[in-house]
Each structure stands twice: as structure tokens, then as C-alpha cells.
């Protein structure tokens, strides 16, 4: 039996960040990981998906730059090399996580943790079983793709992990579920050359983003030839040697679509089952999530939980943020979570990014707001990039202009949203943004101009 002061379970962006912050706070820390350092994010999530997205984007740009005078002939994709590049990026980051943990004197234990009681876990790796007692634990076990019984995962019925390592670019791909993971991957494979159909059960794809934003993405998906079917229910799949036939129902009519693969992205389930938590008496919220307070403490006082296993968006930076709060709380600090300035990004074409409240959410909370928009089409850099689609929208308190939200759709939205998160975090108003000098010509100027619109002093609008 080994004693550990702070035991972290799971080495994803929640767990490894929590472990490092805990050592910075003077704690003696051990991290247990059953699969891969860096978690889903580095190995089979954020990073490899962004590699495929950026390769697809580059290919698409090279193929379609005739308007800019770049006429490329015979552009080819070497899929083996793409996969090698992707795996190389993943290895660099995973090695980096290992180096950081070791450099911060975190003990790394390979194996699967199972709770015996509120101070003891059993860690199993193959035939090796070791018991650890701990003073405090931080659970950061993440999530896994939901498997629906009529779409059992196989060689042809794949989840997001399978989609990142396909042996070839499918000629035809069906995506079930138009959330951000399905739409990002569908869009990436379309750029890589697949004929893509997205089947979504809800009224629209990319729920959670404003309709005026998703319209821009949908228009572009259509331009690429991606078929988006909404209000449709997937009924079943038949597999054959070369692929699948997917049956779905839309508007009371049954339809089929053939493809080489069907990618099922209908959500992710928290990894809170099969690890003895019920016996410890931890309280669960809905859908397998754990109940936590503002310091990420579960109903069992010495056990904290962070990331995909607790309420909120399943995003890597949210997991890391909570990891720091949990580690600081264990050290007796008063740190608490405040989710208002957590951005969410969808790496479609163009990108979508949001932070804080949109107009509708603010109104639903009874907050009186004003909003202002500025288009990419009126920005010199956006035109030079041949990326005129999109807008920046700011949402502020009606009375004093305090910024409480921003929505961006357009090229570079994923980076531009950081300025808005900072503005909200720092309690800035629209005038502060308007008064900040932004370099010319940059996409950042769009944000400044939206702020000028908000305060009624726009230069580039009549
Ligand atoms: P995870 O990263 O899931 O890590 C949990 C770790 O715990 C895993 O390594 C697991 O092996 C380990 N573990 C589980 N149970 C045990 C146990 N009993 N014992 C020991 N170890 C255990 N988020 C973004 O912010 N941006 C993106 O662009 C983005 N893109 C994504 C793309 C895809 C295709 C997917 C699938 C996800 C994406 N995400 C993205 C989501 C992001 O990956 C997750 O929100 C994030 O990884 C959650 O971090 P975590 O630390 O909570 O858990």
C-alpha cells in the first residue's frame, strides 16, 4: 500500500494540468493513467482532428485559388504522409506532457484506477495490482463516444477515434450527428475529397451556436457539396464488403444512403461508470455526470472532479481551467470556477467562436442588452485572404456597455475570440475595445469596428 497526498486519476488536459498546479501549490502528487498521457484531447481529439482539418483546408485552398491567380495542376494527397504528420504532432505533444509531469516531479503510474473507499484506490495494469491511499483525489477520467445499439461500432461503423485514422480517404462518408465533432470531421473529409452527407436529428446542425452564425457555415458546406439533412432520424445500417447502407427517416419518408463508412457522433458519455464510485457514495447528476460545487468538490469532501465528467461544455480548456481551480482548492485557496469567459470554438469552414452570452441567452436571463455587428466583407485583411464571409457580433449591457458576450464566424475566429474572452474577464466595455489601437490590416480590426458600431461612432459604416 502506498500513500499519496494528492492522487489525480486521468492524464488528459484536466488531469495533467491539475497535477502540475498541485505540485506548484506544494503538494506531493501521483497521476494514474490507463491509456495515454494527454488524454483524448492530445491523442484522439482536439489535436489530431485539427491536423486533418488544417491539411484539408490547405488542400482545398490550393485547389480553389484560381481567382487569386494560383493555378495548381495535379494536386495530390499522400494519405500515408498525412497520417505520419498527424501522428508526429501527437507524439510531440504527448512527449511534452510526459516531460512536464516529470519536470514537475509528478509520479506517473500506468494503470486503471478503481475505488475501494473514499481514501483508497486499486490500480491495475495487466497482472500488476497496486493499492494507493490518498488524502485528496482529483477525478479527471474524461469521456468516450456514445454507441447506439443500432449502430454498433465496427470497421465501417466508426466513431471519432476511428475517423482520425482511416486507412484511406473515403469516397463517400455519412456522418450521423451534426454537433461540433461531426460537422468538423465531415467538413474536413469534404475538403480532403470525400462526398459527405450529414444526418442530424434536431432542427439544425451545430446546436448551441446562433442561427445567423451556422447559416454561414451551412452555406459553405453546401458550396462544397456536403449534403446536410436535418430533422432526420437514423434507423439502421447494413454493412457490406465495401461499405455501408444507412437508412434514415425524414419528413415521414424512409431513405437510404450508401457510403464507405458511417461516422457516428451522437455525443460522449462521461467515464464515471465501472470505477467503484457508487460504493464511495459520490452523488451523480444527470447522464453520468458528477455533482460538484464551485471548487469542483464532489459530495465526498476529499474528492474533486473536473473536465468532461462534470457539468458544462466538453472542452479541453474548460477541463484545464477546472483542474487549476481544484488543485488550488485542495491547497486551501479560495479559487472558484466562473464560466462566463470560457470560449467555445468550432473549427469548421469558416470557423465559429463564441464566448459569454449571445443576445438570446442574455434576454432569457433577464439581462437588457444591446448588440453590434461588423462584417468581414468590409475588412481589408479579410478581402486580401479571400475570406470575406462572416461577422463579429458583440453583446453588452444596455446601460453601461459592459461586454458580456461575443460571437464570431469567419476565418481566424478561433484566435480572434481570445481578445473578447480577455475583455469580458477584465470587465471591459465596448469603448475600451474601440479605443484600443488594432494593427492594420488585420482581422482584429473587425472587432474594434464592431465596438465602434456599438458606441455609435463607426468609421467604415455610413
Ligand atoms: P480526457 O481528455 O478524456 O482524459 C481522460 C483520461 O483519463 C484519459 O486519458 C483516460 O484514459 C483516463 N482514464 C479514464 N478512466 C480512468 C481510470 N479508471 N483510471 C486511469 N485512467 C483513466 N475540445 C476542445 O476544447 N477543442 C477542440 O478542438 C476539441 N476537439 C475535439 C475533437 C474530437 C474528435 C474529440 C473526440 C474531442 C474534442 N474536444 C475538443 C474535446 C476534448 O478532447 C475534451 O473535452 C477533453 O479531452 C476533456 O479533457 P479531460 O481531461 O476531462 O478528459
Automatic annotation (TrEMBL):
This is Dihydrolipoyl dehydrogenase. It comes from Psychrobacillus glaciei. Residues 6-323 form the FAD/NAD(P)-binding domain. The active site is a redox-active disulfide bond. GO terms for cellular component: cytoplasm. InterPro entries: Class-I_Pyr_Nuc-Dis_Oxidored (IPR050151), FAD/NAD-bd_sf (IPR036188), FAD/NAD-binding_dom (IPR023753), FAD/NAD-linked_Rdtase_dimer_sf (IPR016156), Lipoamide_DH (IPR006258), Pyr_nuc-diS_OxRdtase (IPR001100), Pyr_nucl-diS_OxRdtase_dimer (IPR004099). NAD(+) binds at residues 177-184, 200, 267. Belongs to the class-I pyridine nucleotide-disulfide oxidoreductase family. The gene is lpdA. It catalyses: N(6)-[(R)-dihydrolipoyl]-L-lysyl-[protein] + NAD(+) = N(6)-[(R)-lipoyl]-L-lysyl-[protein] + NADH + H(+).
Amino acid at each position: 500500500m502506498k500513500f499519496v497526498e494528492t492522487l489525480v486519476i486521468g492524464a488528459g488536459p484536466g488531469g495533467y494540468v491539475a497535477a502540475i498546479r498541485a505540485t506548484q501549490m506544494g503538494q506531493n502528487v501521483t497521476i494514474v493513467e490507463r491509456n495515454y498521457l494527454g488524454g483524448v484531447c492530445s491523442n484522439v481529439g482536439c489535436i489530431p482532428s485539427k491536423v486533418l482539418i488544417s491539411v484539408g483546408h490547405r488542400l482545398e485552398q490550393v485547389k480553389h485559388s484560381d481567382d487569386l491567380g494560383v493555378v495548381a495542376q495535379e494536386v495530390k494527397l499522400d494519405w500515408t504522409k498525412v497520417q505520419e504528420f498527424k501522428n508526429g504532432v501527437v507524439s510531440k505533444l504527448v512527449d511534452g506532457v510526459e516531460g512536464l509531469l516529470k519536470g514537475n516531479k509528478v509520479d506517473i503510474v500506468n494503470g486503471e484506477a478503481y475505488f475501494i473507499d473514499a481514501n483508497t484506490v486499486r490500480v491495475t495494469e495487466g497482472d500488476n495490482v497496486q493499492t494507493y491511499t490518498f488524502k485528496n483525489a482529483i477525478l479527471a477520467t474524461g469521456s468516450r463516444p456514445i454507441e447506439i445499439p443500432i449502430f454498433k461500432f465496427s470497421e465501417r461503423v466508426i466513431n471519432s477515434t476511428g475517423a482520425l485514422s482511416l486507412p484511406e480517404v473515403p469516397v463517400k462518408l455519412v456522418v450521423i450527428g451534426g454537433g461540433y465533432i461531426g460537422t468538423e470531421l465531415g467538413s474536413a473529409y469534404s475538403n480532403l475529397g470525400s462526398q459527405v452527407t450529414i444526418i442530424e436529428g434536431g432542427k439544425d446542425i451545430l446546436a448551441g451556436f446562433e442561427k445567423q452564425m451556422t447559416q454561414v457555415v451551412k452555406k459553405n458546406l453546401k458550396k462544397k457539396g456536403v449534403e446536410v439533412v436535418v430533422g432526420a432520424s437514423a434507423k439502421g445500417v447494413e454493412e457490406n464488403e465495401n461499405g455501408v447502407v444507412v437508412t434514415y427517416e425524414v419528413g415521414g419518408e424512409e431513405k437510404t444512403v450508401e457510403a464507405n463508412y458511417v461516422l457516428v457522433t451522437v455525443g460522449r458519455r462521461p467515464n464515471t461508470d465501472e470505477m467503484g464510485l457508487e460504493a464511495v457514495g459520490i452523488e451523480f447528476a444527470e447522464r453520468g455526470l458528477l455533482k460538484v460545487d464551485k471548487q469542483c468538490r464532489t459530495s465526498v469532501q476529499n474528492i474533486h472532479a473536473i473536465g468532461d465528467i462534470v457539468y458544462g461544455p466538453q472542452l479541453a480548456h474548460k477541463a484545464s481551467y477546472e483542474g487549476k481551480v481544484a488543485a488550488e482548492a485542495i491547497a486551501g485557496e479560495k479559487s472558484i470556477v466562473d464560466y462566463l469567459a470560457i470560449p467555445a470554438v468550432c473549427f469548421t469552414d469558416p470557423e465559429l467562436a463564441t464566448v459569454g452570452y449571445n443576445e438570446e441567452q442574455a434576454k432569457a436571463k433577464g439581462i437588457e442588452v444591446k448588440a453590434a455587428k461588423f462584417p468581414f466583407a468590409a475588412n481589408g485583411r479579410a478581402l486580401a485572404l479571400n475570406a470575406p464571409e462572416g461577422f463579429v457580433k458583440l453583446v453588452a449591457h444596455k446601460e453601461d456597455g459592459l461586454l458580456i458576450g461575443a460571437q464570431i464566424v469567419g476565418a481566424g475566429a478561433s484566435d480572434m475570440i481570445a481578445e473578447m474572452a480577455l475583455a469580458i474577464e477584465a470587465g471591459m466595455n465596448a469603448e475600451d475595445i474601440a479605443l484600443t489601437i488594432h494593427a492594420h490590416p488585420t482581422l482584429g480590426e473587425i472587432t474594434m469596428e464592431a465596438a465602434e458600431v456599438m458606441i455609435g461612432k463607426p468609421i467604415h459604416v455610413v
